[in-house]
């Protein structure tokens, strides 16, 4: 057995020792040949609702379960909030190494990541044009770690580096680039592996699919759930779901699963750009969730150029909740502008275009133009906006698709080649959406022009009909 599988077996033995139950119909499998790390695979047919494994709440790596929670005042954790608190706890457990209660679990968690936070500059350059680059936030995370986490570690140096006479110096060293990188790694683990853990006595009501509403979700504490986080995901191929019970968290099959099939969790309907940012991989199955954003700034830039920029109108739109930093264009099937283009973007464009007296009327009545009644003028401006957005990419769709863009999951490519290919897949996804919007808008403008031509002809023919007074 190689060390990878030895670590898997040691982890499973540790997991059972915590009181967890694991069905003998599943295995933790080495999927490195598919560039997917470990994954859970069915070894026998599994029925719908069957229990795959259950993990006692006491085995979760959470703030409350860590010894650190009894060593540091609760107010400190309250001040840090759930995200930074869990990073702190994970750092503490990581620093404790083999003596941590979760050591065999840490041994199977990755220490290298493919998420965008860890890409080299030349790899990130391949995503030029995609607004996902603005969401990585490495500098602000560094600041946050230095401002919030390092002072806590310094204050409780004796707890963090208990028994080490260099405790104080080691705490000082936590602001070093190497230790900030360790904090990024803990943060990345949380981003890609942690669950929002519903408390045992939760009064929150999950809907029939097990989801709680977004607001409630935000308030839930984050926790690492050993084994549940070994499930990979592939868009709508999910076939298992985690249930929050009083003593245990239980992973159950949501559909019958055949022997040999991989067991997938649901990471949500993420566009490939966000999947890459948070999880460091993409598959074609996520293409259906792709989005491309039109930045608000691009619209104001174009509006200024066309001399339709109007601060009072933007202020009114802001009051009405229409102003945002960007507006999404997504896929729809069959493709329609109404389904794919953010209605707020159409409202925004229409409001900038309406004549002054019409704007005053709308404002008086606290109304907005109706996005489903898009005018030709708005479609023309939207088309220009889509073209301007398309030109923000360094390459064209044709250039991107000319060469083989497939993300090779067979593992023959180097890491850099795979990252380049994944970036290309993201770019293509976004450009395809822009291209579809462009085609639909051109068609809309053409249809409208034919419609108005036909109307004019009809009016003329009616005028010319016998019995009607002839034009002189
Ligand atoms: C929650 S973990 C799943 C377990 C992980 N495979 C491991 O070995 O630790 C999420 C990570 O698994 C990988 N992953 C999940 N689904 C994948 C898929 N369909 N293809 C490739 N990698 C995947 C990504 O690296 C992702 O960040």
Question: How is this structure best described in words?
Answer:
- The mean pLDDT is 93.
- This protein has 2 domains: 59-268, set domain protein methyltransferase, domain 1, CATH 3.90.1410.10; 290-457, set domain protein methyltransferase, domain 2.
- By secondary structure, the chain is an alpha+beta fold.
- It has 19 helices and 12 strands.
- The protein has a 4-stranded antiparallel sheet with strand order 1-4-9-8, with no helix packed on it. Strands 2-3-10-7 form a 4-stranded mixed sheet. A two-stranded antiparallel sheet has the order 5-6.
- α15 packs across α17.
- S-adenosylmethionine (SAM) binds next to β3, α9 and β7.
- One of its GO terms (cellular component) is nucleus.
- Belongs to the class V-like SAM-binding methyltransferase superfamily. Histone-lysine methyltransferase family. SETD6 subfamily.
- Keywords: Methyltransferase, Nucleus, S-adenosyl-L-methionine, Transferase.
- One of its GO terms (molecular function) is protein-lysine N-methyltransferase activity.
